[in-house]
Design brief:
heterodimer, A: mainly beta, 50% strand, B: six-stranded mixed β-sheet, five-stranded antiparallel β-sheet, 11 strands, 52% strand
Chain lengths: 117, 113
């Protein structure tokens, strides 16, 4: 597709379970971002990839959260031992990067709504 | 102190009037500034970006930046009901936006027909 694709669109899980959220960026975009957004709040930065490597993972709240992008395209956000406080919309965005920088415009997917019961 | 602060609103503006949205930021190293629009239940989309002090106009939208005051604003002229959305201010240290983008909580704008 032409846009950023995220799956699943909705995920309901029980406290303590493991969850994976997938993001397929726009073709050719080398920068990929994960944010999460709670109701009434702005997107909260989690991690940013430039190619295959995590350029900045300072927003990951704790070691239960991990993200990978093994081939520089699709990324997976992994959450272990989920807690009720992890419930939010997880947004993925990609950006075109050139000469080490990018245009600054992030193209967001529609998000994965995670509910932890 | 939050890194990016916005009045959460709601801000109600009559159709055809000017809507004024404001944002302050704490990191003096910030170099790039963005306004995103987010409709209810949808993902954010870029409206404007600004790097230099002063005004930048694009159609009905004008972004204003004052780095000395650490202040960014967005003016929407001739407001339309379709402008009703949450407007997110975002900043980054990277001049080309190649560092993380930090968002404010957003201002909810309602245009009254």
């Amino acid at each position: 597709g032409a846009g950023v694709s995220q799956t699943p669109s909705n995920k309901v899980t029980e406290k303590g379970k493991y969850v994976e959220l997938r993001c397929d960026p726009i073709s050719g975009h080398t920068a990929l971002y994960w944010y999460r957004q709670s109701l009434g709040q702005g997107p909260e930065f989690l991690i940013y990839f430039q190619g295959t490597g995590a350029a900045d993972d300072s927003g990951l709240p704790n070691d239960r959260f991990f993200a990978v992008r093994p081939e520089g395209s699709v990324s997976t956000l992994k959450i272990q031992r989920t807690e009720r406080g992890d419930s939010a919309v997880y947004l993925c965005a990609s950006s075109f990067s050139y000469s080490g920088g990018n245009t600054g415009e992030l193209f967001f997917g529609e998000g994965s709504r995670l509910t932890v019961l | 102190q939050k890194e990016v602060e916005q009045n959460s609103g709601p801000l109600s503006v009559p159709e055809g009037a000017i809507a004024s949205l404001n944002c302050t930021y704490s990191d003096r190293g910030s170099q790039s500034f963005f306004w995103y629009r987010q409709y209810s239940g949808k993902s954010p989309e870029l409206i404007m970006f600004i790097y230099s002090n002063g005004d930048k106009e694009d159609g009905r939208f004008t972004a204003q930046l004052n780095k000395a005051s650490q202040y960014v604003s967005l003016l929407i002229r001739d407001s339309q009901p379709s402008d009703s959305a949450t407007y997110l201010c975002a900043v980054t240290r990277g001049l080309e936006g190649n560092e993380k983008l930090t968002f404010g909580t957003g201002t909810r704008l309602t245009i009254i027909p």
